[in-house]
Please model this.
Amino acid sequence: EGGFYSALDADSEGVEGKFYIWSEKEIDELLGEQSSLFKEVYNVQLEGNWEHTNILWLPVSIEEYCQRNELDEQKVQLQLQRCRQLLFEKRKSRIRPLLDDKIILGWNALFNKALSKAFAATGEEAYRTLAIRNMNFLWSTFRNAAGNFYHTYKQEARYPAFLEDLAFLADALLHLQEVTGHTDWLLKAEEAVSVLIRDFSDEQSPFFFYTPSHQTDVIVRKKEVYDGAVPSGNSVMAGVLHRLSLLLDRPDWGQKSQQMVKIVGNAIRRYPTSFGNWACTLQETALGTNEITLIGQEVDCLLLELLQAYIPHRVLMSSVRTDDRFPMLRNKITDSLSSIWLCRNFTCQPPIRTIADLLRLIEKEHGNKS
Model:
């Protein structure tokens, strides 16, 4: 359907990693005279390379191994492929780790963001295509007719979404808008944030509760601010609100983001390892955000080039034509195939033509600010 399951068990038959690991004896019996090469390439040892057994891994690449030993790489690759196939067939008879096949909105949103980042870094279209398919599944499956969101899905969506579900979803939608140039994802992010503000807000502070107001089976509605194994929903929302304030001209959301960061400011400085995601938003607030707009017929080529450049603290919109619904796409007319605008607080530099020119301009702006 386009979603991703939650987890595989680490163990099977009560032994951690048993499905994946090998003894030297097993490999010798399966591969016979071919085992010596295989064991050397994949670091298989009599005493084991991990807890008295072996995990197959490459200390050096196969190409480098062949160069060191003056071997024909093509022949070695073919032999190793045959060996791997024999082990793979044997592994099919083992008891597989159990699959946790529930689909969680927040975890899928995190992975969706990872897919957008992978496409941005590599230009590999499969990542973007998968991100779009996954997001279409999430939006249609975890959202009901009334516009409320659910936390988990297995044959049907169940349980009200938590703060991190919607925060991670909005964040993923903003990244998907960047890598596709499609404003529909931005409007969906606005909708998710509007639902979040409606259902999770605290009248006494700018922070959000972990559970929605309509969930009545909780004893206490808690608020989480610490960044742990995953960022806290509040820290993610501080960043999302800041970016949406620029993308949608919502100064009220920008002010809310600043209030959130200000309250935890001292804690960020004193305990940065517990507030890592907060620190990123604090840094962006201090240094300012690059508002980058690409407009024109050749925008797709420019977008691919821009995405592979590391530009922290930025929001990005790209379009073939202007669009008065969005401040970054408003009144930007180009007399060439494509133009690039760099703005700060909606104040723009004259348009430029190349990504190289943009990077130089950003460096210059940063130098002036420093």
Q: What stands out?
A: DSSP finds 14 helices and 13 strands in the chain.
